[in-house]
Amino acid sequence: MPVISFANAKGGAGKTTAALLLATELAHQGYRVAILDADPQRWITQWHEISGPQRNIEVISEVTVASVQGHIRELSRSNDYIIMDLAGARDAMVTTAIGLSDHVMIPVQGCAMDAKGGAQILDLIKLMEDAGNLVIPHSVVLTRVTSMVTTRALLTIKGLLAARGVNVINTPIAERSAYREIFDCGGTLYSMDTAKISNLDKAQDNAKAFATEVMRLLPVKVIRSSEPRRLFRLVRSAA
Ligand SMILES: Nc1ncnc2c1ncn2[C@@H]1O[C@H](COP(=O)(O)OP(=O)(O)O)[C@@H](O)[C@H]1O
Ligand SMILES: [Mg+2]
User: What residues have CB less than 8 Å from 195, skipping those under 6 apart?
Assistant: First the structure.
């Protein structure tokens, strides 16, 4: 039961969008998915409120440093994947969530010169690994990639990250109006009207390719190995 969190110290990187695309695609494929909405702005919670009940998806709001571990323990009994959406911050909540994750996805805008928010999370993970002997697998996910971003530019970014030993998810998340519409209309890419949303099929293919890669990286039966006590010491020192 993998726990996957989406972290970038800056807002607007595409965390919430990528988290929801992954969650809804996994649910579409029949997996039971719990989303922990740990962002005080509650975008996923609002999406859930306008969507109504969604098959295979439950959303937990009001997640705090004190409650997150209990939520994960509880949800792990009845879900195949737990996905955490985090605020654009580097605070105790983000640190705790990272420490409890089997994998941290770090969305970085493919076209952004400023990848500082992503780098801050990479530094935080390094600090937790060095100070606490915690191994926190993580990957950068390139997001909002448009046709303006050339294959060569993407290869350059991947090369730079690889030189730092950072894994990059092969499937970049494209810039698609369908990904904005989900938050306005509710539901999923599969409940939208093909006639009304341009390139919906491409958006579905892209989300599916992303989720397929994540599933390969994190098959359902991952054994959790976090050590809570050490983690909370770390949270105190990092916050
Ligand atoms: N792949 C995408 N295609 C189109 N719009 C996107 C995409 N990713 C994010 N956005 C838009 O960019 C804004 C910020 O994205 P969001 O996922 O909320 O980022 P974060 O959670 O990191 O703050 C939102 O308005 C969202 O709709
Ligand atoms: Mg967000």
Answer: none
- Exposed, middle or buried: residue 163 (CB in 10 Å: 0-12, 13-18, 19+)? exposed
- What's the average pLDDT block by block, 10 residues per block, for the chain (239 residues)? 95 96 98 98 98 98 96 96 97 96 93 74 93 91 84 80 89 96 97 94 98 96 53 56
Ligand 1: does its nearest atom lie under 6 Å from the Cβ of 8? Answer: yes
**Amino acid present at 55:** R
188 Cα–ligand 1 center, Å = 15
**Ligand 2 centroid from CA 14, angstroms:** 7
Q: What superfamily does domain 3-228 belong to in CATH?
A: P-loop containing nucleotide triphosphate hydrolases (3.40.50.300)
Directed axis angle between helix 177-185 and helix 43-51, to 10°?
70
Crossing angle of helices 177-185 and 15-28, in 10° steps, is: 80
Q: At what angle do helices 68-75 and 92-99 cross, to 10 degrees?
A: 30
As residues whose CB is below 5 A from the ion ligand 2, the structure lists 15-16
pLDDT at 153: 76
Specify whether the CB–CB gap between 129 and 230 falls below 8 A. no
* Cβ burial, residue 179 (10 Å; 0-12/13-18/19+): buried
Q: How many CB atoms lie within 10 A of CB 70?
A: 10
